[in-house]
Every structure is written in structure tokens, then in C-alpha cells.
Amino acid sequence: MNGSPLDARAALNPLYVAAIILIIFIVLAALYVITKMLADYKASPAYLEKQKNKPTTFANVNDTAKLAHLLREERDLLWSICKKNPTPNLRYYLRDPLTLEPLFKATFEFLDQADDEKSKTYLFSLRGKLKDTFTPTENMNNSRKIEVGTELTYTASQGVHYRLKLVEKQPDSMILALPAVMVERGDKPQELSKITLIFIHKSGNAYQMETRAVRYQKDKQNGEQMIIMHSENLSPLQRRQTERTDIEQPCLFASVAVKKNETGKNSTVSYTPSENLHKGILMDVSTGGCRITTTMPIKPEQFIYIRGKFNASDEDAVIGTIVRTTKRLDGLFILHIRFVKIEREVENRIQALVCQYTLPELSI
After folding, report:
1. Does residue 362 have a pLDDT over 50?
2. Which of 52, 169, 344, 357 has its CB surrounded by the most CB atoms within 10 Å?
3. Alpha carbon of 334 to those of 49, 161, 268: distances in Å?
4. What band does 157 get if pLDDT is binned at 50, 70 and 90?
5. Secondary structure of the chain as H, E, C letters
6. Is the model's pLDDT at 42 over the cut of 90?
7. 69 contacts 128 by C-beta, under 8 angstroms
8. 138 with 201: CB under 8 angstroms?
9. In sequence order, what are the beta bridge partners of 244?
10. Which of 301, 317, 312, 294 is nearest to 350 (CA)?
11. How much is the pLDDT for 245?
């Protein structure tokens, strides 16, 4: 005999195993290709256009939450917003996150009436994550793409920022309206000098532009205008972690005594403001910090107590640390401050102002 049937089966086992492995490999490869093709199709403009009028489902929200790394509370809030309105296909909407702003504002107003500060915090963090994840990247390589009405920031006098508004574009140049205070302080760049301007595109991306101030002229209302050359020297800037808005509000500030309290394995920090208060002007603000103009040359790396209308309406108080101090040509000092202790309610009020969900009062 040439061998038993058992021996024959044993001899065939390696071929059998190899065949099974090959079949599994082919099936897995086919599944991968099909899954990738399906994912690419679902991410394509053609698919989104076809699906745009279908109502948003929880699966759409869940997919969005994974892409934007949303917390469960943020995902649930987004789902409740989409159910309440109801919202057309979310993935189509998110091709431009700004389309969700009316829904976010209406949700904020509802939460504000309910005095739900925790949910307002989740709303603002949800808004920020969606904006960061889905805002399209604009390849800005020429100033001719800047839209009329855009504000460009010019920095002069060792830290003084001025907002110049683009009022007209010409084939080789742009006309910017200058703020009156910039003219009064003599902070205009010299004619034919090179200058640096910073602007934020409608997509939310910030850019720095190198150009040249050509000359000055008056508008019909006798306002000052600066003519600058178009530029191809544009470079993207890293997006700020917190959005900022300009205000001009009086405030009071004081030095702070800091004490670290050790309790077993736990430690806490207490901040005790001095009773000796000084006057200053809040120049801009975000949930992360602010700038204060003062006559006092306070050195950096000191803690500071600030009381004022951070949302240009309600008086609040925060604790911060002075990151740096700069001196202006007019002799005033600018304190650049990072917040280290701020209440949730105060953060929400500032964020509502930054998002323009609330209107500021007139400066005093």
C-alpha cells in the first residue's frame, strides 16, 4: 500500500491551508476596496449634493462627532439642535460651518433664558471644534482675493493695533480707510515704506501680508485713506486658540497675593487682590486673556486682578498673569494678560460677545 487515507489527508493539509489563507486575503482585500470606494463616494460633492435635502440622522451626527473629536455632551447637543430645527444633511451643511451660525445663536438664546451655563459652554466648544475641523482651507496667495469690507490690522507704536478697512480694490492697488485715532496719534506709516498687515479671511483663516504704503488721500467725508500695493507675499498664520474681539471699556486692576495651600496629597491656590485699585482701559478680550492700557509700567510675570465689563455690558472680575508689557509712543503702557482664574459664566459672556450673539453697549 502507498499509505493510509489519513496520511493522504495530512499530505494535502499545507495546500488546503494555503488555499484558505489566499481566499481570506482576497475577501479582505475586496472588502477594503469596496469600503474605501464607498467612503470616497460618501465624501464626494456629488453624493453630498444628492443627499443635501435629506434630514440629518443620528448616524450623520455620530460620524461628524468622530471627525471633530466631539465630547458626548457636544455630540448630544448637536443632535438636539438638528432634531429641533430640523436640519438638512449635516455633512452638506458643514462644507461651510458658517451656515450653522443662526442655529447656534438661537440655541444660545434658549440656553441663556434657561440660565444653563454648562450647556452654553458645550455649545461654544462644539462651535469651535466644528469650525476648526470643517472650515475649508483657502489658498490665499494674492491680495486680489481679499474681499472689500475686510479689516486689516496694522501694528504700530510697539504694540498698538489699528483696524484698517478695505474700501476699494484697483488693478494694482487697494484703498484702506484709516481710523481717526491712528491719524491723530501720528501712527501712519511713511509713504513708500514697507508695512505688514494681518487679516482674517471669511473662512476664519488668518494671513500676514507684506506690502508697501504708496500714498494718502481724503475720502468724500474728509476721512484719511491709505493706498497700498497689491501683494503676492502672503503667509498663513496659526489660528488662535481663542477668538478675540476689540472693545474699549474702563476697568480697575490690582496686584494679587498668591498662596499655595497644601492639604495632604491635594494642593490649591488662593488669590487675594490688593485693596489698592488702579484705573485702566480694556482694549480687547477673549476667553483666554485681554489687553489693558494704563499709565503704569508694570513688569511682566506678575498676577493681576481685573474688574470690568469684559463683555461690554456686565461687570465681572478675573485673575490673570501679565505675559508682557509694551510702551506706546504716547507714553501709555499695554499689559498683555493671560487669564488664570475665570468663572464659567464670565467665559460664556465673553464668548457670546466674540461670536456676536450679544450686542455690546457703547463705550463709556
Report:
1. no
2. 357
3. 50, 11, 30
4. low
5. CCCCHHHHHHHHHHHHHHHHHHHHHHHHHHHHHHHHHHHHHHCCHHHHHHHCCCECCHHHHHHHHHHHCCCHHHHHHHHHHHHHCCCECHHHHCCCHHHHHHHHHHHHHHHHHCCCHHHHHHHHHHHHHHHHHHCCCCCCCCHHHCCCCCEEEEEECCCEEEEEEEEEECCCEEEEECCHHHHHCCCCCCCCCEEEEEEECCCCCEEEEEEEEEEEEECCCCCEEEEEECCCCEEEECCCCCCEEEEEEEEEEEEEEEEEEEECCEEEEEEEECCCCEEEEEEEEECCEEEEEECCCCCCCCEEEEEECCCCCCCEEEEEEEEEEEECCCCCEEEEEEEEECCHHHHHHHHHHHCCCCCCCCCC
6. no
7. no
8. yes
9. 286
10. 312
11. 84
Q: Which three cell numbers, joined as nine digits, stand for 228?
A: 497700498
The total of other beta-carbon atoms located within 10 Å of residue 282's CB is: 23
Contacts of 309 (CB under 8 A, 6+ apart): 247, 249, 251, 282, 315, 316, 361
pLDDT in tens, 211-250: 999 999 999 899 999 999 999 988 887 655 567 888 889 9
CA 217, 220, 224, 229 dihedral sign is negative
Distance from C-alpha of 50 to C-alpha of 91, rounded to nearest angstrom: 12
Mutual orientation of helices 117-134 and 72-84 as an angle, nearest 10°? 90
Give the chain's largest Cα–Cα span.
115
Q: Which residues pair with 92 in a beta bridge?
A: none
Over pLDDT 90: what percentage of the chain?
52
Q: Which of 250, 355, 353, 356 is nearest to 311 (CA)?
A: 353
What's the pLDDT score for residue 51? 67
**Number of residues in the chain:** 364
| Nine cell digits for residue 9 | 489527508
pTM, two decimals, is 0.70
More confident call, 322 vs 283: 322
